Protein backbone atom coordinates (compact mmCIF):
# COMPACT_ATOMS: atom_id res chain seq x y z
CA UNK A 1 0.00 0.00 0.00
CA UNK A 2 1.31 3.44 -0.98
CA UNK A 3 0.54 6.01 1.69
CA UNK A 4 -0.61 9.47 0.69
CA UNK A 5 -0.57 12.71 2.61
CA UNK A 6 -3.87 13.67 4.32
CA UNK A 7 -6.14 16.02 2.38
CA UNK A 8 -5.49 19.67 3.14
CA UNK A 9 -1.82 19.13 4.03
CA UNK A 10 1.35 19.22 1.93
CA UNK A 11 5.08 18.59 2.06
CA UNK A 12 7.53 21.47 1.76
CA UNK A 13 10.52 20.03 -0.09
CA UNK A 14 14.05 21.32 -0.78
CA UNK A 15 13.87 24.04 -3.40
CA UNK A 16 10.75 25.43 -1.73
CA UNK A 17 11.66 25.17 1.94
CA UNK A 18 14.52 27.64 1.47
CA UNK A 19 11.92 30.28 0.50
CA UNK A 20 10.03 29.55 3.71
CA UNK A 21 13.21 29.85 5.73
CA UNK A 22 13.95 33.24 4.17
CA UNK A 23 10.43 34.52 4.85
CA UNK A 24 10.56 33.28 8.44
CA UNK A 25 13.92 35.02 8.93
CA UNK A 26 12.39 38.28 7.69
CA UNK A 27 9.65 37.80 10.28
CA UNK A 28 12.17 37.19 13.05
CA UNK A 29 14.23 40.18 11.93
CA UNK A 30 11.18 42.47 12.01
CA UNK A 31 10.41 41.27 15.54
CA UNK A 32 13.99 41.97 16.64
CA UNK A 33 13.72 45.52 15.29
CA UNK A 34 10.49 46.10 17.24
CA UNK A 35 11.78 44.22 20.33
CA UNK A 36 9.40 41.24 20.29
CA UNK A 37 10.64 37.91 21.72
CA UNK A 38 9.75 34.42 20.52
CA UNK A 39 7.51 32.05 22.48
CA UNK A 40 6.77 28.44 21.44
CA UNK A 41 3.54 26.98 22.79
CA UNK A 42 2.24 23.38 22.41
CA UNK A 43 0.43 22.33 19.25
CA UNK A 44 -2.54 21.18 21.32
CA UNK A 45 -4.31 22.69 24.31
CA UNK A 46 -7.40 21.99 26.39
CA UNK A 47 -10.48 22.33 24.18
CA UNK A 48 -12.12 24.64 26.70
CA UNK A 49 -9.32 27.19 26.19
CA UNK A 50 -10.46 27.79 22.61
CA UNK A 51 -14.15 27.75 23.47
CA UNK A 52 -13.62 30.46 26.07
CA UNK A 53 -10.90 32.35 24.28
CA UNK A 54 -11.94 32.24 20.62
CA UNK A 55 -15.72 32.20 21.21
CA UNK A 56 -18.30 29.43 21.00
CA UNK A 57 -20.22 31.09 18.14
CA UNK A 58 -17.19 31.45 15.84
CA UNK A 59 -16.68 29.32 12.73
CA UNK A 60 -13.49 27.97 14.30
CA UNK A 61 -15.17 26.54 17.40
CA UNK A 62 -18.44 25.51 15.73
CA UNK A 63 -17.06 23.80 12.63
CA UNK A 64 -13.29 23.77 12.21
CA UNK A 65 -11.47 22.45 15.29
CA UNK A 66 -9.58 19.15 15.38
CA UNK A 67 -10.63 17.94 18.84
CA UNK A 68 -10.04 14.58 20.50
CA UNK A 69 -9.98 12.75 23.83
CA UNK A 70 -6.65 11.40 25.05
CA UNK A 71 -6.19 8.19 27.04
CA UNK A 72 -6.96 10.07 30.23
CA UNK A 73 -10.26 11.20 28.69
CA UNK A 74 -9.06 14.81 28.59
CA UNK A 75 -10.61 16.96 25.86
CA UNK A 76 -7.83 18.41 23.71
CA UNK A 77 -7.69 20.39 20.47
CA UNK A 78 -4.95 20.99 17.90
CA UNK A 79 -4.38 24.73 17.98
CA UNK A 80 -6.55 26.51 15.38
CA UNK A 81 -4.98 29.92 16.06
CA UNK A 82 -2.11 31.32 18.10
CA UNK A 83 -3.44 33.97 20.46
CA UNK A 84 -5.35 31.82 22.97
CA UNK A 85 -2.28 29.65 23.66
CA UNK A 86 -0.06 32.72 24.04
CA UNK A 87 -2.50 34.26 26.52
CA UNK A 88 -2.69 30.96 28.43
CA UNK A 89 1.13 30.96 28.65
CA UNK A 90 1.14 34.61 29.78
CA UNK A 91 -1.33 33.75 32.56
CA UNK A 92 0.09 30.36 33.58
CA UNK A 93 3.61 31.70 34.03
CA UNK A 94 2.32 34.84 35.80
CA UNK A 95 4.07 37.12 33.33
CA UNK A 96 1.48 39.76 34.22
CA UNK A 97 3.37 40.17 37.52
CA UNK A 98 6.48 41.32 35.67
CA UNK A 99 7.18 44.83 34.33
CA UNK A 100 5.01 45.52 31.30
CA UNK A 101 4.51 45.65 28.40
CA UNK A 102 5.30 42.09 27.33
CA UNK A 103 5.98 41.75 23.58
CA UNK A 104 5.95 38.22 22.14
CA UNK A 105 5.80 36.56 18.72
CA UNK A 106 5.25 33.04 17.40
CA UNK A 107 5.72 31.14 14.14
CA UNK A 108 4.23 27.69 13.65
CA UNK A 109 1.57 25.33 12.28
CA UNK A 110 -2.15 25.66 13.05
CA UNK A 111 -4.98 23.26 12.26
CA UNK A 112 -8.53 23.86 11.01
CA UNK A 113 -10.92 21.48 9.31
CA UNK A 114 -12.05 23.48 6.31
CA UNK A 115 -12.27 23.14 2.54
CA UNK A 116 -8.75 23.30 1.08
CA UNK A 117 -8.18 26.02 -1.52
CA UNK A 118 -5.47 28.40 -2.69
CA UNK A 119 -3.74 29.84 0.37
CA UNK A 120 -5.91 27.84 2.79
CA UNK A 121 -5.02 24.38 4.13
CA UNK A 122 -6.08 22.15 7.01
CA UNK A 123 -2.59 22.41 8.40
CA UNK A 124 -1.42 25.94 7.79
CA UNK A 125 1.29 28.18 9.20
CA UNK A 126 0.92 31.46 11.00
CA UNK A 127 3.16 34.26 12.18
CA UNK A 128 1.75 36.36 14.99
CA UNK A 129 2.67 38.92 17.60
CA UNK A 130 1.06 39.68 20.96
CA UNK A 131 1.69 42.77 23.10
CA UNK A 132 0.31 42.69 26.66
CA UNK A 133 0.04 45.22 29.44
CA UNK A 134 -0.71 48.59 27.81
CA UNK A 135 -3.85 50.42 26.70
CA UNK A 136 -1.79 52.98 24.79
CA UNK A 137 -3.14 53.34 21.21
CA UNK A 138 0.48 53.88 20.15
CA UNK A 139 0.98 50.15 20.77
CA UNK A 140 -1.90 49.37 18.39
CA UNK A 141 -0.18 51.52 15.78
CA UNK A 142 3.16 49.78 16.40
CA UNK A 143 1.59 46.37 15.93
CA UNK A 144 0.00 47.42 12.63
CA UNK A 145 3.26 49.04 11.50
CA UNK A 146 5.28 45.90 12.24
CA UNK A 147 3.16 43.91 9.80
CA UNK A 148 3.51 46.55 7.11
CA UNK A 149 7.28 46.70 7.71
CA UNK A 150 7.40 42.95 7.14
CA UNK A 151 5.50 43.12 3.85
CA UNK A 152 7.79 45.89 2.64
CA UNK A 153 10.91 43.92 3.61
CA UNK A 154 9.57 40.98 1.59
CA UNK A 155 9.12 43.26 -1.42
CA UNK A 156 5.33 42.83 -1.58
CA UNK A 157 3.38 45.61 -3.27
CA UNK A 158 -0.28 46.56 -2.93
CA UNK A 159 -0.81 45.51 0.70
CA UNK A 160 -3.37 47.77 2.36
CA UNK A 161 -4.59 48.15 5.94
CA UNK A 162 -8.33 48.20 6.64
CA UNK A 163 -9.06 49.63 10.07
CA UNK A 164 -12.11 49.70 12.34
CA UNK A 165 -13.14 49.89 15.98
CA UNK A 166 -15.41 47.18 17.37
CA UNK A 167 -15.85 49.29 20.50
CA UNK A 168 -15.91 48.42 24.17
CA UNK A 169 -18.41 46.15 25.94
CA UNK A 170 -20.98 48.93 26.41
CA UNK A 171 -20.75 50.02 22.77
CA UNK A 172 -21.23 46.49 21.51
CA UNK A 173 -24.17 45.87 23.86
CA UNK A 174 -26.03 48.84 22.33
CA UNK A 175 -25.03 47.82 18.83
CA UNK A 176 -26.08 44.23 19.45
CA UNK A 177 -29.64 45.29 20.16
CA UNK A 178 -29.72 47.45 17.02
CA UNK A 179 -28.49 44.55 14.89
CA UNK A 180 -31.10 42.18 16.27
CA UNK A 181 -33.83 44.72 15.51
CA UNK A 182 -32.45 45.19 12.01
CA UNK A 183 -32.05 41.51 11.11
CA UNK A 184 -35.28 40.20 12.66
CA UNK A 185 -37.53 41.20 9.72
CA UNK A 186 -35.12 39.34 7.39
CA UNK A 187 -34.77 36.28 9.62
CA UNK A 188 -36.24 33.80 7.12
CA UNK A 189 -33.92 35.08 4.37
CA UNK A 190 -30.73 34.67 6.40
CA UNK A 191 -28.56 31.58 6.05
CA UNK A 192 -29.18 28.85 8.68
CA UNK A 193 -25.86 29.75 10.26
CA UNK A 194 -26.78 33.44 10.51
CA UNK A 195 -30.19 32.53 11.95
CA UNK A 196 -28.53 30.53 14.71
CA UNK A 197 -26.34 33.53 15.57
CA UNK A 198 -29.04 36.19 15.49
CA UNK A 199 -29.68 36.19 19.23
CA UNK A 200 -26.36 34.70 20.36
CA UNK A 201 -23.89 36.96 18.57
CA UNK A 202 -25.39 39.06 15.76
CA UNK A 203 -22.02 40.74 15.02
CA UNK A 204 -20.95 37.44 13.49
CA UNK A 205 -23.62 37.87 10.81
CA UNK A 206 -21.65 40.82 9.43
CA UNK A 207 -18.82 38.36 8.70
CA UNK A 208 -21.07 35.92 6.78
CA UNK A 209 -19.90 34.48 3.46
CA UNK A 210 -23.48 33.65 2.30
CA UNK A 211 -24.43 35.86 -0.68
CA UNK A 212 -27.96 36.80 0.44
CA UNK A 213 -26.90 37.32 4.05
CA UNK A 214 -24.06 39.59 2.90
CA UNK A 215 -26.53 41.57 0.80
CA UNK A 216 -28.84 42.07 3.78
CA UNK A 217 -25.94 42.89 6.12
CA UNK A 218 -24.61 45.56 3.73
CA UNK A 219 -27.39 47.93 4.84
CA UNK A 220 -27.14 47.11 8.56
CA UNK A 221 -26.47 49.95 11.04
CA UNK A 222 -22.85 50.94 11.51
CA UNK A 223 -21.10 50.28 14.81
CA UNK A 224 -19.56 53.75 14.45
CA UNK A 225 -22.88 55.27 15.50
CA UNK A 226 -22.74 53.48 18.86
CA UNK A 227 -19.08 53.88 19.75
CA UNK A 228 -18.41 55.35 23.17
CA UNK A 229 -16.37 58.54 23.41
CA UNK A 230 -13.43 56.51 24.78
CA UNK A 231 -13.58 54.15 21.79
CA UNK A 232 -13.77 57.03 19.32
CA UNK A 233 -10.83 58.74 21.00
CA UNK A 234 -8.80 55.51 20.99
CA UNK A 235 -9.39 55.02 17.26
CA UNK A 236 -8.54 58.66 16.52
CA UNK A 237 -5.23 58.26 18.35
CA UNK A 238 -4.42 55.05 16.44
CA UNK A 239 -5.09 56.88 13.18
CA UNK A 240 -2.95 59.83 14.29
CA UNK A 241 0.01 57.59 15.13
CA UNK A 242 -0.31 55.65 11.88
CA UNK A 243 -0.31 58.95 10.00
CA UNK A 244 2.84 59.99 11.84
CA UNK A 245 4.49 56.67 10.96
CA UNK A 246 3.54 56.93 7.30
CA UNK A 247 1.35 53.80 7.41
CA UNK A 248 -1.54 54.22 4.98
CA UNK A 249 -4.94 52.79 5.98
CA UNK A 250 -8.62 52.95 5.04
CA UNK A 251 -11.57 52.85 7.45
CA UNK A 252 -13.92 49.87 6.99
CA UNK A 253 -16.83 50.11 9.42
CA UNK A 254 -18.00 46.57 8.47
CA UNK A 255 -14.78 44.92 9.60
CA UNK A 256 -15.45 42.74 12.67
CA UNK A 257 -12.88 39.90 12.31
CA UNK A 258 -13.79 36.25 12.82
CA UNK A 259 -12.94 35.91 16.52
CA UNK A 260 -14.99 36.99 19.52
CA UNK A 261 -12.20 38.33 21.70
CA UNK A 262 -11.59 41.61 19.86
CA UNK A 263 -12.30 44.99 21.50
CA UNK A 264 -11.57 48.53 20.28
CA UNK A 265 -9.10 48.34 17.37
CA UNK A 266 -9.61 45.74 14.64
CA UNK A 267 -7.66 45.64 11.37
CA UNK A 268 -6.82 43.47 8.38
CA UNK A 269 -3.98 43.35 5.87
CA UNK A 270 -5.53 43.02 2.43
CA UNK A 271 -3.95 41.94 -0.85
CA UNK A 272 -5.79 40.59 -3.89
CA UNK A 273 -4.66 37.03 -4.66
CA UNK A 274 -5.61 35.02 -7.74
CA UNK A 275 -7.71 31.97 -6.97
CA UNK A 276 -8.06 32.81 -3.28
CA UNK A 277 -11.58 33.22 -1.91
CA UNK A 278 -10.56 36.11 0.35
CA UNK A 279 -7.95 38.83 -0.02
CA UNK A 280 -7.06 38.92 3.69
CA UNK A 281 -3.48 37.83 4.35
CA UNK A 282 -3.51 38.75 8.03
CA UNK A 283 -5.23 40.76 10.68
CA UNK A 284 -5.70 41.40 14.34
CA UNK A 285 -6.69 43.93 16.94
CA UNK A 286 -7.17 44.54 20.67
CA UNK A 287 -8.44 41.89 23.08
CA UNK A 288 -8.62 43.73 26.38
CA UNK A 289 -10.78 41.18 28.20
CA UNK A 290 -9.14 37.97 27.01
CA UNK A 291 -6.42 37.65 29.66
CA UNK A 292 -9.04 37.96 32.42
CA UNK A 293 -11.38 35.54 30.61
CA UNK A 294 -8.62 32.91 30.59
CA UNK A 295 -7.93 33.33 34.30
CA UNK A 296 -5.40 36.11 34.66
CA UNK A 297 -5.50 39.69 35.83
CA UNK A 298 -7.39 42.27 33.80
CA UNK A 299 -4.46 42.94 31.46
CA UNK A 300 -5.04 44.46 27.98
CA UNK A 301 -3.56 42.98 24.83
CA UNK A 302 -3.18 43.66 21.12
CA UNK A 303 -1.74 41.58 18.30
CA UNK A 304 -2.11 40.06 14.85
CA UNK A 305 -1.81 36.83 12.91
CA UNK A 306 -0.47 36.55 9.34
CA UNK A 307 -0.98 33.47 7.17
CA UNK A 308 2.39 32.36 5.84
CA UNK A 309 0.83 30.32 2.98
CA UNK A 310 -0.87 33.47 1.74
CA UNK A 311 2.40 35.38 1.96
CA UNK A 312 4.10 32.66 -0.11
CA UNK A 313 1.27 32.81 -2.66
CA UNK A 314 1.65 36.59 -2.90
CA UNK A 315 5.42 36.32 -3.40
CA UNK A 316 4.84 33.84 -6.22
CA UNK A 317 2.16 35.95 -7.90
CA UNK A 318 4.33 39.07 -7.78
CA UNK A 319 7.31 37.03 -9.03
CA UNK A 320 9.52 38.14 -6.16
CA UNK A 321 12.82 36.30 -6.26
CA UNK A 322 13.80 34.86 -2.90
CA UNK A 323 17.55 34.70 -2.17
CA UNK A 324 18.90 31.17 -2.47
CA UNK A 325 20.90 30.61 0.69
CA UNK A 326 21.68 26.95 0.00
CA UNK A 327 24.44 27.41 -2.56
CA UNK A 328 27.52 25.29 -1.95
CA UNK A 329 30.93 26.85 -1.47
CA UNK A 330 32.58 23.72 -2.76
CA UNK A 331 32.02 20.19 -4.09
CA UNK A 332 34.72 17.56 -3.56
CA UNK A 333 35.59 15.04 -6.27
CA UNK A 334 37.92 12.22 -5.29
CA UNK A 335 39.61 9.45 -7.26
CA UNK A 336 40.80 6.33 -5.45
CA UNK A 337 40.29 5.01 -1.91
CA UNK A 338 43.22 6.90 -0.42
CA UNK A 339 41.86 10.19 -1.81
CA UNK A 340 38.38 9.32 -0.63
CA UNK A 341 39.62 8.89 2.95
CA UNK A 342 41.75 12.04 2.81
CA UNK A 343 38.79 13.91 1.36
CA UNK A 344 36.73 13.28 4.49
CA UNK A 345 39.34 15.19 6.49
CA UNK A 346 39.24 18.06 3.99
CA UNK A 347 35.43 18.27 4.17
CA UNK A 348 35.40 18.22 7.95
CA UNK A 349 37.95 21.03 8.28
CA UNK A 350 36.05 23.23 5.80
CA UNK A 351 32.69 22.62 7.51
CA UNK A 352 34.14 23.38 10.92
CA UNK A 353 35.36 26.68 9.47
CA UNK A 354 31.80 27.50 8.37
CA UNK A 355 31.89 26.60 4.67
CA UNK A 356 29.09 24.68 2.94
CA UNK A 357 30.63 21.74 1.16
CA UNK A 358 29.53 18.35 -0.13
CA UNK A 359 30.89 15.36 -2.05
CA UNK A 360 29.86 12.37 -4.14
CA UNK A 361 28.71 9.27 -2.27
CA UNK A 362 27.77 7.11 -5.27
CA UNK A 363 31.26 6.43 -6.67
CA UNK A 364 30.28 8.02 -9.97
CA UNK A 365 32.72 8.87 -12.72
CA UNK A 366 34.28 12.33 -12.77
CA UNK A 367 31.97 13.68 -15.48
CA UNK A 368 28.88 12.71 -13.47
CA UNK A 369 30.38 14.26 -10.34
CA UNK A 370 30.93 17.54 -12.19
CA UNK A 371 27.28 17.49 -13.22
CA UNK A 372 26.30 16.94 -9.59
CA UNK A 373 28.44 19.93 -8.58
CA UNK A 374 26.76 22.04 -11.25
CA UNK A 375 23.26 21.04 -10.09
CA UNK A 376 24.25 21.98 -6.54
CA UNK A 377 25.38 25.42 -7.82
CA UNK A 378 28.79 24.95 -6.20
CA UNK A 379 31.19 27.88 -6.51
CA UNK A 380 34.24 25.61 -6.67
CA UNK A 381 35.03 22.00 -7.37
CA UNK A 382 37.90 20.44 -5.40
CA UNK A 383 39.65 17.57 -7.19
CA UNK A 384 41.70 15.15 -5.11
CA UNK A 385 43.43 12.03 -6.44
CA UNK A 386 46.42 9.85 -5.59
CA UNK A 387 48.78 12.20 -7.44
CA UNK A 388 47.51 15.29 -5.56
CA UNK A 389 47.89 13.51 -2.21
CA UNK A 390 51.47 12.59 -3.02
CA UNK A 391 52.24 16.24 -3.78
CA UNK A 392 50.14 17.54 -0.84
CA UNK A 393 48.04 19.56 -3.28
CA UNK A 394 44.41 19.82 -4.39
CA UNK A 395 43.06 21.14 -7.68
CA UNK A 396 40.42 23.89 -7.41
CA UNK A 397 38.17 24.73 -10.36
CA UNK A 398 35.94 27.81 -10.47
CA UNK A 399 32.53 26.87 -11.85
CA UNK A 400 31.91 30.48 -12.90
CA UNK A 401 35.11 31.06 -14.91
CA UNK A 402 36.13 27.42 -15.53
CA UNK A 403 39.67 28.40 -14.51
CA UNK A 404 41.65 25.87 -12.49
CA UNK A 405 44.64 26.10 -10.16
CA UNK A 406 46.53 23.98 -7.67
CA UNK A 407 46.45 24.86 -3.97
CA UNK A 408 48.44 23.35 -1.13
CA UNK A 409 46.21 21.09 0.95
CA UNK A 410 47.40 22.79 4.11
CA UNK A 411 46.53 26.23 2.62
CA UNK A 412 43.09 25.34 1.15
CA UNK A 413 41.17 26.84 4.07
CA UNK A 414 43.04 30.15 3.92
CA UNK A 415 42.67 30.23 0.12
CA UNK A 416 38.89 29.75 0.42
CA UNK A 417 38.62 32.43 3.11
CA UNK A 418 40.33 34.89 0.79
CA UNK A 419 37.82 34.09 -1.96
CA UNK A 420 34.78 34.30 0.32
Automatic annotation (TrEMBL):
Classification via Pfam families: HGTP_anticodon (PF03129), tRNA-synt_His (PF13393)
Keyword terms: Aminoacyl-tRNA synthetase, ATP-binding, Cytoplasm, Ligase, Nucleotide-binding, Protein biosynthesis
GO cellular component, one term: cytoplasm
Catalytic activity: tRNA(His) + L-histidine + ATP = L-histidyl-tRNA(His) + AMP + diphosphate + H(+)
Aminoacyl-transfer RNA synthetases class-II family profile domain location: 36-323
Single GO MF descriptor: catalytic activity, acting on a protein
Enzyme Commission number(s) from the entry: 6.1.1.21
Cellular compartment(s): Cytoplasm
Cited InterPro entries: aa-tRNA-synth_II, aa-tRNA-synth_II/BPL/LPL, Anticodon-bd, Anticodon-bd_dom_sf, His-tRNA-ligase, HisRS-like_core, HisRS/HisZ, HisRS_anticodon
Parts forming coiled coils: none
Taxonomy, superkingdom: Bacteria
Broadest EC class assigned to this enzyme: ligase
Binding site for L-histidine: 81-83, 112, 126, 130, 257, 261-262
GO biological process: histidyl-tRNA aminoacylation
Family named by the database record: Belongs to the class-II aminoacyl-tRNA synthetase family.
Assembly notes: Homodimer.
UniProt-recorded name of the protein: Histidine--tRNA ligase
Amino acid sequence: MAYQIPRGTYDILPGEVEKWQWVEEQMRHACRLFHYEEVRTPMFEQTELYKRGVGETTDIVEKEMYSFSDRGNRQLTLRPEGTAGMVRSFVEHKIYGQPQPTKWYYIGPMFRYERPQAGRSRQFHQFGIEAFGSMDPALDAEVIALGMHLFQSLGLEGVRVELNSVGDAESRARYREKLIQYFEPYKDELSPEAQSRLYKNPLRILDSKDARTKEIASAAPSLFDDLSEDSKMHLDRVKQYLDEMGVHYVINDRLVRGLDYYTQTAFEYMLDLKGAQASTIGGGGRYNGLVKEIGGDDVPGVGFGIGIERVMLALEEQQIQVPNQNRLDGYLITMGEQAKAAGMKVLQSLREAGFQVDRDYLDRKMKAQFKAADRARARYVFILGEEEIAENKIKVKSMATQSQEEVSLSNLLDWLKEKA
